[in-house]
Specification:
single chain, 15 strands, 8-stranded mixed sheet, alpha/beta, 7-stranded mixed sheet, Rossmann fold, 2 domains, Nucleotidyltransferase, domain 5, about 425 residues, 18 helices
Amino acid sequence: MRQTLPTKVLKLKALPEKPVFGQLGEKAYNFAYRHPSEDARITVLEGAIRSGKTWALHPKLLQLCDYDVEGVGLIIGVSQATIYTNMLHDFFNIIGPEAFKWNRASGELHLFGSWWRIMSGTDEGSEKYLRGATVGKAIIDEATKVPESFWKMLITRMSPPGARLYATTNPDSPYHYLKTDWMDNPDLREAGDIEILHFDLDDNPWLAPSTKVLYERAYKGVFYLRFIKGLWVVAEGAIYRDSWSPDLVFTTQFAPTEIRNWKDHQWAIQRYISVDYGTTNPCVFGEIIDDSVTLWQTREWYWDSEKEMKQMTDTEYGDAMDEFVGEPRNVTVIVDPSAASFKVELMRRGYVVVDAVNDVLDGIRKTASMFCLKRYRIHEDCVNSLREIPNYAWNEKKQKLSGAEEPIKLKDHCPDMARYGVATIVPDWRMAA
């Protein structure tokens, strides 16, 4: 399928008339090369992972650069880093370094003579940055992670005639405001103010059959229904019900030699301590040995101040860490970003400390996939982890009341520790290998 950019856009820079963005599926192609003036005021591209949703926005973004509408252009996502990874990295490689200028500090992007601002919109306070602005065109990556207050404020700022909003998302809870109040709103649909484009894996002609098979293995339960089948379904019951299995438990006797004797294989092995910090709540340390394919949780340390009737100080936790780590101290400690005082204590003792990646839902998704792929294993002696992880459950009552998805905050300390480790250590590409 030959795909060329509209003549009007080509005049902005001498791009060759060739399939610059590669082959698109029919659905993505019809959207991507349709002029923005023909689009609805709001277009939501939703469905399975790797189905071509974001890729279809690349040609659309070029057209938006030359789309004559009042107001600024915004590209919104979880953070500038995720926007770059999810969307801009490939786009910049295609158009070349002479076509854009991006100031990462300010978020300003000059693209083919048009001005855009790249910004995060994932917390309730983000909407204040929209006040007073007039927005003519906006793109939102991972739209379900944008708070309702931000979404509503953005819509009010997009007042110029011809303003256009494009949002991509994987399915979430059917109680999510984006689904209930906007995507399923009959008044918006009948008026033509919103268009919903659903994408399946088969809509991406570049996706190899072997990759589809891998996804079938990596996702089970609610994550399979959402990310592979593209369905908006409720997350209910035990979080790891469909991904956890007893064969993930290992014994020292049957562990790989390099895991049993990791000190002799330090050139090929990475060692981490993942920490769920608590003072009144339990505090958990988990030792994770990474052989570049599988994470092996070999040991745990668990302190429940209520059960022990003693609340530890940061100094005492530091002493416990010294004893737990032992020698050598060639270890990276992953700590909840909110545990500022404990991080200081660990750094004072000479540890390499990194903030845990703390996107709860994405971390749960990634941990579930690692369980499905048999790439997160837990030693039989980690009794607290083996008790808490299979019983880690969704807060169904809160989901139905507010649409917010989160685990029940009860006996969640080992699951949080494991989630911190997986989310921080394992990039998405590694699960696809």
